[in-house]
Amino acid sequence: MVSVRVTDHALVRWLERHHGLDTEAFRQELADLAQPFADVKARNGKVGNLYLIMDGDRVVTVSPEAKSVRALKPAGVAVVPERLPWKALKRKRAHK
Q1: Is residue 46, in this structure, part of any structural domain at all?
Q2: The dihedral of CA 48, 54, 57, 58: what is its sign?
Q3: Number of structural domains, the chain?
Q4: What DSSP character marks residue 4?
Q5: Out of the domains of life, which is the source (predicted)?
Q6: SS3 for 24?
Q7: Closest-CA residue to 69 (of 43, 49, 51, 35)
């Protein structure tokens, strides 16, 4: 027998449509909590006993631990490196 797995998307839609949960109100509350962290371009921000994990101006997850977006990427997923500072680029070009 195959056990059924329920995706997060399906669970959220079920809570919205079957139980009448107003997810947009929760989304706005979370956005309001995250705005100060986005304003200062923080990678995460502590709210109560949880951390909002940020990727630019997006909240990508909520975790009991402070993590970075890179730490959340599964193995084998390409991570785009941050742009090198101009001095590092100059050194890199000089070695060619």
Answers
A1: yes
A2: negative
A3: 1
A4: P
A5: Bacteria
A6: helix
A7: 43
DSSP 3-state of 35: helix
Q: What is the pLDDT of residues 48-65, one digit of tens each?
A: 999 999 998 999 999 998
Going from the C-alpha of 4 to that of each of 7, 10, 12, 30, the distances in angstroms are 10, 12, 16, 30
Q: What is the pLDDT of residues 2-44, one digit of tens each?
A: 999 999 999 999 999 999 999 999 999 999 999 999 999 999 9
Question: Does residue 17 fall inside a structural domain?
Answer: yes
Q: Phi, psi (5° rounding) for residue 40?
A: -100, 10
User: Higher model confidence: residue 84 or residue 64?
Assistant: 64
Domain assignment present for residue 85? The answer is: no
Residue 67 covered by a domain: yes
Handedness of CA 12, 17, 22, 28 (dihedral sign): positive
Whether this model's pTM surpasses 0.70:
no
Write down how long the chain is: 96
